[in-house]
Amino acid sequence: MRPKKCNPGSPVQIERHDPERRSGAGDHLYFGCGCCSCCCCLHSLGGLIGAVMPSANGGSVSAGPVARCYWSFTVVLVIGIVLYSSSQDTGAGLGIIALLLALPLVQLAASLLTLFCAAVWRAKFPDEAASLRQLGKITLYSFLGALVGVLATLVGLKLLG
Predict the structure, then answer these.
(1) Domain limits, the chain
(2) How far is C-alpha 5 from the chain's CA centre?
(3) What Cα–Cα distance (Å) separates residue 44 from each residue in 30, 81, 91, 135?
(4) How far is residue 115's CA from residue 122's CA, in Å, rounded to a whole number?
(5) How confident is the model at residue 35 (pLDDT cuts 50, 70, 90)?
(6) pLDDT of residue 72
(7) Closest alpha carbon to 68 in 130, 141, 135, 121
(8) Using a CB cutoff of 8 Å and minimum separation of 24, what contacts does 6-13 make?
(9) Mean pLDDT across 113-127
(10) Once rounded to an integer, what is the mean pLDDT over residues 9-14?
(11) Alpha-carbon distances, residue 24 vs 4, 16, 62 (angstroms)
């Protein structure tokens, strides 16, 4: 098969051959269901960035240790999931992928545990209204960040798919 366009001045000629037995897959970029596609990372990254925003601002001093409690629970839950998954037969790789997929749910669980701690240990959280407002901002921004990540993934799938 001869090339469609021949450039006589070029020392290298590139020629595309048709497949011998099957039709070609085409020039499609398959996006999704793989670790390198970022579909599992964008919503997790968005949730983390969303949760960091109100934590970094700090809110009022009277909000107490809400952000520290939230991030402590998040880290403990993440480490617990990684340790549990590495003790299973499937290994830590599958657990880390599952963690990336479920990180917004882990963040929601950390928010609920922080809310429980704020209700039980009122002495640790001096201003209850400011503490709950700070926790609400962290949870809301985390959810919105995860939602932005999902929307970015869907736009990427539509553009590249």
Answers:
(1) 64-160
(2) 46
(3) 21, 15, 21, 19
(4) 11
(5) very low
(6) 92
(7) 135
(8) none
(9) 85
(10) 70
(11) 18, 11, 64
Distance of alpha carbon 125 from alpha carbon 66, whole angstroms: 8
Residue 29: name the closest of 115, 154, 158 by CA.
158
CB 130 within 8 A of CB 60: yes
* Lookup: tokens for 2: 């001869």
Per-residue model confidence as pLDDT tens digits over 52-111: 887 776 666 666 688 888 989 999 999 998 888 888 776 667 777 778 788 889 999 999
Q: Structure tokens of 119?
A: 């209700």
In which residue are the tokens 């640790």 written?
A: 124
Percent of the chain with pLDDT over 70: 70
Residue 23 has which token pair? 């039709």
